[in-house]
Amino acid sequence: GGGRAGVGAGGEGVRKAERAGTGQVEQAARRKDVALSLLDAVFEGAPVGISFIDRSLRYVRVNEALARMNGKPAAAHLGQRMEDVVPDLAPKVTLLIDGIFATGAPLLNYELSGRTEATPGLQFWLVNYYPIRDAEGEIIYIAATSTDITERKRLEQELRHQAARPGGRGAGRTEPGVTRARGRARPHPNPERAPSAAWPDLP
To answer: What is the pLDDT of residues 182-196, one digit of tens each?
Structure first.
């Protein structure tokens, strides 16, 4: 009788351990699902374009922000080669991505320019490319992020043009302690009390 009781107790211990192990596995699976859901939310909601590209330069996944930049639906990217989606950019980006697959080094804050179907004009992006490795350390994908900086570049260009034009930005200004009369600069009668900004031209 004692032997059978011992066997029964041992069996119950095994079952408890199995249930505990099953619970831990289920808990780990739930944590993994939550983590993946969070990553998906960030991927789809990010204001920057995000994509994953394989060794054959085909899009594995893109978010809506990148789809808008490229002027094509996200679904139209999947499995397509870059040259079929953004032919104007493909030659430049191919060289960059091939270099990352070869060296394993990321490329950060690179300014890229070109055209897509989203808009007919020249566009500018700040791009980053990162290698994605498998468990053995082999690079299987390139993760890319793209930020549209077209408006910033246009503003910078306009400011440069203004500064280069006669009478552009800075024209009409004088140093503190100097006033202007009839378009000619002359010392202020009391430099210590002169305004820091230039006086307006007199008629």
So the answer is: 444 445 455 444 444
* Collapsed DSSP state (helix, strand, coil) of residue 38: helix
Nearest to 177 by CA among 192, 165, 158, 162: 192
> Cα-Cα-Cα-Cα dihedral of 39, 74, 130, 55, to 10°?
120
Give the separation between CA 55 and CA 160, rounded to whole angstroms: 41
Q: What percent of the chain has pLDDT over 90?
A: 53
Q: Determine the Cα angle at 180 with ends 178 and 183, to 5°.
A: 145
Residue type (1 letter), 94: T
Beta bridge partners of 139: 133
Report the SS3 class of residue 42: helix
